[in-house]
């Protein structure tokens, strides 16, 4: 058994959404999940460690805004297929972590 009953429902719903929308990896693109964005680097690092403990491939990306402000994005992935992304997104939801799907040109 991979998930709790509630998380299994989330997994099934995300799987259906992926099937309906036809989300499939595209050539020259990669998919990631943003699992947080923090002004303080230590907060981002704490989230990254939590995700690693959940056995998710996580990293922190520093973003410099035009006004000199810096943010630390916590990313999960990249994903080779929709099923891997769905599994990670469900794990995040199961642990009360919101996520945002990002599609990036390679």
Structure report:
This protein has 3 helices and 4 strands. It has 106 residues and is an alpha+beta fold. The protein has a 4-stranded antiparallel β-sheet with strand order 2-3-1-4, with helices on one face. A hairpin with a 5-residue loop joins strand 2 (58-64) and strand 3. It is globular. It starts with a helix and ends with a strand.
User: Which whole number gives the mean pLDDT?
Assistant: 86
Number of separate helices: 3
What's the N-to-C terminus distance? 35 Å
Share of β-strand residues: 25-35%
Write the layout of secondary structure elements.
Blueprint: H1 5-21, E1 29-38, H2 41-53, E2 58-64, E3 70-79, H3 82-94, E4 100-105
Antiparallel strand pairs: 1-3, 1-4, 2-3
Helix pairs in contact: 1-3
Brief rundown of the structure:
This protein is an alpha+beta fold.
Features:
106 residues, alpha+beta, four-stranded antiparallel β-sheet, 41% helix, 31% strand, globular
């Amino acid at each position: 058994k991979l998930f709790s009953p509630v998380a299994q429902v989330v997994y099934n719903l995300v799987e259906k959404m992926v099937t309906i929308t036809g989300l499939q990896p595209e050539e020259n693109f990669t998919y990631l999940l943003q699992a947080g964005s923090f002004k303080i680097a230590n907060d981002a690092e704490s989230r990254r460690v939590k995700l690693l403990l959940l056995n998710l491939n996580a990293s922190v990306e520093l973003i410099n805004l035009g006004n000199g402000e810096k943010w630390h994005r916590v990313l999960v992935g990249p994903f080779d297929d929709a099923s891997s992304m769905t599994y990670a997104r469900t794990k995040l939801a199961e642990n009360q972590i919101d996520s945002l799907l990002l599609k990036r040109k390679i």
